[in-house]
Fold this protein.
Amino acid sequence: MDTPQITAPPCAPSPVPGDATPSSGVIHINFRHAAGFTVIGNHLAQHRGLSLAAIGLAAHIQSLPAGARIGIKRLAERFPESETRIAAALRELEAHGYLHRSRVRLADGRIITRTISYNQPGTDASTTAAPQPRTVPSKPTPQPTPPPPQRKTAPEPRPAPAPAPPPAPMPQPQPAPVLVPAPTARTTPPPPLPQPQQLTPELQRVATTLLADLRRHAPQLILSEHDIHTLAPGVATWLERDAHPDTIRHALTTDLPNPLKHPAKLLRHRITALLPPPLPGAQDVARARPGVIVIPLQNCDRCDRAFRSRNPGHCRDCRSALHTAA
């Protein structure tokens, strides 16, 4: 009866003091890198305003050596994300100060995109300094005995500092092109007024009369004597090309603008622009229709009836009657 009976399981052991292993969540197994690593701050890795794609892209850019190309097309070839997603991630990094892109013109005239990556937003390239190696304090060493004094010698001349290289010449701004306005109707001279082959007094009289009579048909067309004598050779050219006076009057007085400010200029334009070509002659029409052969008319020697034939003689009926009689 005095032997103890153990029926309950023992209690769980109490945690060992100093044990940092969490009971849930992520567990880190860290290995100290000696080479080939990149230091990234928690302000980037745990940024609440950046997407995972932007954080990963910033970590990738910071791990690249200086001078590496990080264009959108090159990054799209390297990663499975599309160019649109990579461009959006780059804009996120620019908006939060982790990236700065600018267009720079080189001395040879080429324009390139210069990209600056910041591992800490808000820093300046002039204020950043290279990390100094940590020094381990060493044990004090015994001081050696000073050597005996020697004769003073002239100090060696220090070499002169090398002259600084001349600054690269800045590209000269290209002069802006001078824009020359296209010629318009107001700047180009008007075409010359048509002139007849031979201005006879009869053509001059008819042309002058026709121009002076235009105001009866269109009151706006009031011309001075100088304008009538100036425009008369153009109207004479129309008459020389067998244009009827009514045709000329209709061409000059139809569809006039309202109001009409310069009647002489309008008539000069219509006389020049609407000038008909010369009428072709009968020989020109025959030459223009080479496939049509015109057989002349002949008069029958017996009945005096007209018929078409290349040679004179008798018509068809008379030839038939002659054959029947024979």
